[in-house]
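ARCHIVE CARD
Drawer: 12
Card no.: 0347
Subject: one protein chain, sequence and derived structure
Cross-reference: see card 0346
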Amino acid sequence: MPRALRKSLPHAALLGYLLVVLFPFLFVLFSSVKKDNNSIALNPFGIPKEFVFNNYVEAWVNAKISTYFFNSLYISVFASVVSIILAGMFAFAVTRMRHGRWNILLYSFVLVGMLIPNNALMLPIYTIVRKLHILNTHWALIIPYIANAIPFTIIILAAFMRSLPSEIEEAAVMDGLKAPGIFAKIIVPLTVPAMVTVFIVNFLGNWNEFLLANYFLSNDELRTLPVGMVQFRDQYQMNYAQMSAGIVYSVLPVVIIYAILQEKIIEGVTAGSVKG
């Protein structure tokens, strides 16, 4: 086999994989600018003959996508940020501070949280939320989202913090900084790549979550985007063109965040792989 052909095979395979991944999104994108369900049925995978951008306006205004969108956005961002702050402080305590066996015990306790399936926690979470009288409020989602994200976030941040040289802290102590100052002024800036990575993962999980949002929120004005997408179905049919426009709205924030933070994400993926 010629050398040039051998080199091009991996690129061809990756290009084929990219087409397979992008094909469903292109189908949704083309469907979002088609006139109606009949146009989608007659030409499901082709480029529309007439581009109807009014579907985005109808979905945003009439289908209340704007309300669901901003509900999902602020819940996902707030829960992700708080989980990173709490997990970051915990990871700093168990990796950079000397507490003897307590560090191992506490970290092991966190690892146990990764072993429990989320579906098995539905009933306990519902019971706690009901007793706290926060059912049918956004706090019914924010608190479980934060709790669910903390174990994974601690594991990633702890792995990154262990790779930081101890000489940095020694120099900070010499300058008069105590533990809170070392964490805020030294550790946090150095841990930004890992924090960005876990923020994206947590944000995606919160943004796409359906079960809790569907069961815990009954008020239409409080619903999130995944639950609100069901509203496209009326008594007789589902408007697939407007539903596709809603899907594009749901994908847009993730694409924008990844495009802006892609360099930090790549750094965070390799976090802790090299010592020192």
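Annotation on reverse: The chain has 13 helices and no strands. The chain has a mean pLDDT of 83.
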